[in-house]
Amino acid sequence: MKIPFVDLQKQYQEIKPLIDERIAQVLTHGQFIGGPEIKQLETELSKFCGAKYSLACANGTDALQIALMSLDIKPGDEVITTPFTFFATGEVIALLGAKAVFVDIDPETYNINPDLIEEKITDKTKAIIPVSLYGLCPDLEKIQRIGSANNVHVIEDGAQSFGAITEKGNSSCSINDLSTTSFFPAKPLGCYGDGGAVFTNNEELANKVNSIRNHGQAQRYHHEYIGLNSRLDTIQAAILLEKIKLFPKEIELRNIIAKRYSESFSHKLKTQKIPSSAQCVFAQYTLEVSNRDSFLNNMKEAGIPVAVHYPICLQHQPIFKKLGYTNIHTPHAENASTKVVSIPVHPYLEENQQELIINKTLEFAKA
Ligand SMILES: *Cc1c(COP(=O)(O)O)cnc(C)c1O
């Protein structure tokens, strides 16, 4: 039995005629950049998450960069975020010459601890980027209140969480001043290449994002800003228009599998805590083991793919050390980075595969 970490082939087989037809339509009309599918997708994304404005772009990293650029983040500014995330979150802050200020996580959810944010706000703080890690939102409403009270914009990095719902009942990518997501193939809602989107309810920011993603122009050849070439391909939008129809069912399937895992591991292993009224989209199913190296080896030998998200806190990455990020202590994030492992949770895992994953995890994991 060979278990894939993410099964995109099986998903394609489920909707092959629909996807093929959509792609054929784009090949026929020939508007490969800015085709009608882009606007259609943006409308569907807004319907799905409730954000007033959805703006597709080339990938989730650009989405974050565009969001920061729309706030005029510049050298000397400070941006508060979590050190326990994919590199891109910190990378875009540094790319714009700003300083990332790392705040420790809640060890139960692995998300930024909102109670530690306010003490890090200074005159230079221009933005806060909470990351909805593994598909679970932190208390984004509370973080927005903290931001608004201090005149600091909040950007949700929802690369892993499109489709998630907060404990208070709001959709990921609809709550904060700006939100971003990624359609990288392995994300919960992935396309067949790179893709991303920026979301906002603010018309002024939406217009600015719209310009920045297309060389800073609102009108052709009239450039208001220094921008990027960061458009979503029409073919990717067409693919997403089919995949978004399948997405609610896939979220449900991921949750059924995750629930089975959590019940099996309960009182035996520490897993990500999901507040009972929240909906996680389980981009990853993550647990902690104290013997990670041997666990990874044993699982691989048993034919079960496993991954580590993420083994190194951002301030400990070689480039951040070089940039002077030293003496930054985030003990909960550092502890998690040495123990976390993710096991497959994609919606097309068969029951016997789930059972094998559960049994082997229990066999090899030391709490
Ligand atoms: C995947 C990811 C990104 C980057 O998205 P890309 O589409 O790969 O550029 C940013 N932040 C987080 C938390 C991610 O998981």
Write a brief caption for the model:
This protein has 367 residues and is α/β, with parallel strands linked by helices.
Describe the structure.
- By secondary structure, the chain is of the alpha/beta class.
- The protein has two domains: 8-240, Type I PLP-dependent aspartate aminotransferase-like (Major domain) (Aspartate Aminotransferase, domain 2), CATH 3.40.640.10; 247-366, Alpha-Beta Complex (Aspartate Aminotransferase, domain 1), CATH 3.90.1150.
- Helices cover 40% and strands 13% of the residues.
- Strand 8 (217-219) and strand 9 (222-223) form a beta hairpin.
- The chain is globular and about 65 Å long.
- The model has no long low-confidence stretch (mean pLDDT 97).
- The structure holds pyridoxal-5'-phosphate (PLP).
- Pyridoxal-5'-phosphate is lined by residues 59-61, 85-86, 88-89, 131, 157, 159-160, 182, 184, 194, 196.
